[in-house]
Amino acid sequence: MQIGELSERAGVSHRTIHYYERLGLIKPAEREGAGYRYYDASAQKRLEKIAALKRLGLSLDEIAAVLDLYFEDASGIKGKEKVLGILEAQLAKANAQLDELTTFKHDLETNITRMHALIAQARRK
With pLDDT > 90 as the criterion, what percentage of the chain qualifies? Predict the structure, then answer.
């Protein structure tokens, strides 16, 4: 199929397909003498897997690291294990950020309380 048909079937733009090609996420099955790219069903499956992995919150770099695993292993277990590791790392990072934000929030509340007390004290003088 040509890029237009692939674009329509996968629900992505021509530009996205070209971008993913430049990143090595997909590749045309063949090129015609006039330079037209032709894609097979595997390109559509790869685009669908890319979309699913993006919905999980993976970056394109992370997707590039796991995408081939899904197509090398029919069970998909290797890809899923790698994605699980990425998601667990993201969760650990989010938890660390939440801890930092909680500490920052507590510090703000303490400083606000202190400033209210200083203002009240200054008004009493």
Answer: 82
Rounded CA separation 102/113 (Å): 17
Q: Are 62 and 55 in contact (CB under 8 A)?
A: no
Q: DSSP 3-state assignment of 102?
A: helix
pLDDT of res. 33 = 64
Counting beta carbons within 10 angstroms of the beta carbon of residue 92, is it exposed (0 to 12), middle (13 to 18) or buried (19 or more)?
Answer: exposed
CA distances from residue 34 to 27, 30, 31, 75, 76 in whole angstroms, order as listed: 17, 12, 8, 38, 37
Q: Is the pLDDT of residue 8 over 70?
A: yes
* pLDDT at residue 29 in the model: 76
Coil, strand or helix at 17: helix
Tokens of 47: 């685009």
Q: Distance from first CA to last CA of the chain, Å, rounded?
A: 83
Rounded to 5 degrees, φ, ψ at 38 are -120, 140
